[in-house]
Amino acid sequence: MQSTDEVVFRTIKYVADTEMMQFQKVKERYKSHECWSKPQAELLKVNFDGAFVAQEKRGSWGFVVRDENGQAVLAGAGNLQAVHDALCAEAEACSAALTATMNHGMSNIVLESDSLVLVDALKTDKHNQSLGGPLFREARAEMRLSFAVAHINFRPRSCNMVAHELARLSLSWDPGQSMVERSTPKVCNSSVSRDLAKAVLK
């Protein structure tokens, strides 16, 4: 006969697995059919991404902010010496992007992430008891209190390539190293140009 703890554990695992399958189905529906698009007038679009090395429990983050003309006005990347899991790396990326945009006086933003679970964690409180719970609560509070407009949406990887490249780039940096600049690093310029070209053709 199963103990109460075993029944609870199996129930939680079943719910988590079912929820993850639903997320994967939504991601497959979006996969490769979209490209980055310009934000509406008066808004800045913030794409961010996290990277994670499971064996070493370390990661990195990257973000890029673009205006209604598709021009990069701010970008950042950083190395995370220690991080719990991939979702926490995504949350750290969001936090870094929020802090940087706030520090540069940007008050009307729309955030985009290719992590459907993170977007759900920032729109609801369903994931508050997970390892990233404190990060999710902090990000939600910052979005609510520090910005006039702050929305977050899920977009597939094809819409998030510049942030993805920045996160991958900083994965090889020294522990704790980071940068925030008014433009994207030269290694990402081709991806920025590609996004803009596709956005113009839409």
UniProtKB/TrEMBL annotation:
CDD domains: RNase_H_like (cd06222). Residues 47-168 form the RNase H type-1 domain. This is RNase H type-1 domain-containing protein. It comes from the Eukaryota. Coiled coil: none annotated. GO terms for molecular function: nucleic acid binding; RNA-DNA hybrid ribonuclease activity.
